Amino acid sequence: MSAPGFDAVGRAFAPDALGKEVRLHGWVLRSRSSGGILFVVLRDRTGSVQVTARRDALGAEPFSAAEKVQAEGAIEVTGTVAEDRRAPGGREVRASRLVVVDAGQPFPIFSDQTEEFLLDKRHLAIRSQEHVATFRVKAELLRALREFLDGEEVLETTPPILSGNAAEGGAEAFRIDYFGRPGYLSQTAQLYLEALLFPHERVYALTPSFRAEKSRTPRHLTEYLHLEVELAWCDLARLLDFEERMVCSVAHVLAERRPKELSELGRPPEELLALRPPFPRLRYDEAIERLEAQGFPVRWGSDLGTAEEKALTLEEKSPIFLTHFPKEIKAFYMLRSPGDARTVEAADLLAPEGYGELIGGSCRETDVGLLTERIREVGANVEEYDWYLDLRRHGSIPHAGFGLGIERILRWLLRREHIRETTPFPRTPARHTP
Ligand code: 4AD
Ligand code: MG
Questions:
Q1: pLDDT in tens, 74-102
Q2: Residue spans of beta strands (DSSP E) within 364-423
Q3: Domain holding 348: CATH number?
Q4: At 354, is the secondary structure helix, strand, or coil?
Q5: Do both 75 and 205 map to the same domain?
Q6: 171 pLDDT above the threshold of 70
Q7: Residue whose CB lies within 8 A of the most ligand 1 atoms, among 219, 226, 231, for a mutation test
Q8: Whether residues 85 and 139 fall in one domain
Q9: Gap between the Cα atoms of 357 and 102, Å rounded
């Protein structure tokens, strides 16, 4: 699809395009002029092509206007597709007409600028090839996830982002003034998904989640895209089976549909095609033993930080599940392990190569008494959760679910150093503009 009367740039490389006339419009990637010939690399959403424009073909005035176009200026070109071994892709468009749509001011972005400057100019920086490749893969990832979930008969639902509850722990929620009453930006859609589970049995939501964590790490954003799934009649074994099938499925789809972008970004598609279930499972107590043996200052009950997760996964090729955490370091709604009241039926999926947690999931406590006790223990207000406790009063059933951080998984899949490279306008403690 192209604007009426225009071809896409990619058309210049079609087998039958040689010798034909094309009409293109787009942005100037770079240009130089020498001896009455202007060389322009023209970009649109389908790719880029070299355009050569001669002063004698264009006329003196249009030529001199074209010479003044800056990088990222916009032009229209009519010309003939020709073979040229020196041009990228082996072809060029020889212009008979060149119209300047917007010559543009000097583009402020070029090589070797600081990260801070590039973040200030993010609205322009996202035109770079690296960002284009990243966000094409991100769109494909979201599509692949939806296709997988659709295939599993999981229903897409639309829980709210504004809430009167802070579900994952009040300290890290963004508080807002909701017409004079306290409100929060959602940290998770889980509690609402649990309510939606009763009429639909298998539900998911893809929503922004907000975390008011001051963590300045390469894997924390204050706003991220959260895919959350909730499954009825599900135990921990089946939950992990579902998660690993989902991760492998989307990794394979990306390798098949976006091999060029993956390679460009430094992830050989073959590495994603090699992912296979089952992923290794490691119990928390085994992990603690392993870490103690490596000299980490941890003991049973310690929460595992970035360094510990890294040590557990640095040598892995596949993600691994870490299971059965002490209940004290996990959320109030997690189901106590049958036969061990100290641990919960929960699992984090950790990415290989030290990229850290991708998914947090668990079975949910079904007993209204035990759940109330846990809400009290974590110091939350039982009354605020009364609506949630209703779910345990009317047909409570075993169920489980998980949350996947979209930018987290993308960071690992695309080997990005910092999570901010996986979202067009990153939100971090230091920045919420542009
Ligand atoms: O482990 P978390 O906190 O789990 C929950 O919110 C559950 N209620 C989800 C559920 O069971 N429905 O968050 C889930 C995932 C993490 O594994 C991580 O991938 C991502 O969300 N995440 C973040 N991603 C980017 N920046 C942050 N600050 C993140 N915090 C969590
Ligand atoms: Mg977690």
A1: 999 999 999 999 999 999 999 999 999 99
A2: 399-405
A3: 3.30.930.10
A4: helix
A5: no
A6: no
A7: 226
A8: no
A9: 46
User: CA geometry: angle at 318 spanning 314 and 321, to 5°?
Assistant: 85
Listed in sequence order, the residues at least 6 apart from 1 whose beta carbon sits closer than 8 Å to its beta carbon are: none
Q: Are 364 and 231 part of one and the same domain?
A: yes
Chain-centroid distance of CA 48 in Å reads 26
- Does residue 241 form part of some domain? yes
Minimal-distance CA residue to ligand 1 atom 14: 403
Instruction: Please check whether residues 62 and 189 belong to one and the same domain.
Output: no
Q: What percent of the chain has pLDDT over 90?
A: 93
87 and 223, same domain (yes or no): no
Cβ distance 250 to 148 under 8 Å? yes
- Tally of CA atoms within 13 A in the half-sphere of 407 that contains its CB: 22
Same domain, 206 and 73: no
CA 90 to centroid of chain Cα atoms: 34
User: CB-based contacts of 200: which residues, under 8 Å, 6+ apart?
Assistant: 155, 157
The residue contributing the CA closest to ligand 1 atom 27 is 220
Q: What pLDDT, on a 0 to 100 scale, did the predictor assign at position 178? A: 96
CA of 16 to the centre of ligand 1 (A): 50
List, for residues 381-410, the tens digit of each pLDDT value.
Answer: 999 999 999 999 999 999 999 999 999 999
Domain boundary among 55, 76, 102: 102
Owner of token pair 């990306």: 254
> Per the confidence metrics, is the pTM higher than 0.85?
yes
The set of residues, in sequence order, having a beta carbon less than 8 Å from that of 251 and lying 6+ positions away, is: 272, 273, 275, 413
Q: Which two tokens stand for residue 318?
A: 């596949």
CATH number of the CATH domain containing 94: 2.40.50.140
Residue span of the structural domain in which 91 resides: 9-102
Query: Does the Cβ of 269 fall within 6 Å of ligand 1?
Result: no
Kindly give, in sequence order, each residue whose CB lies less than 8 Å from that of residue 381, ignoring residues fewer than 6 positions away: 375
Q: Quote the CA–CA distance of 9 and 26 in Å, as a whole number.
A: 8
Give me the mean pLDDT over the 291-302 stretch.
96
**Residue 359 alpha carbon, nearest atom of ligand 1:** 17
Over residues 200-219, the pLDDT tens digits come to: 999 999 999 999 988 889 99
341 in the same domain as 314: yes
Show the CA angle centred on residue 314, arms to residues 144 and 247, nearest 5°. Answer: 15
Q: What is the pLDDT of residue 170?
A: 54
Q: Tell me, in angstroms, the distance from the centre of ligand 2 to residue 402's CA.
A: 9
Provide the number of structural domains found in the chain: 2
pLDDT tens figures, 224-240: 999 999 999 999 999 99
> 192 and 54 in one domain?
no
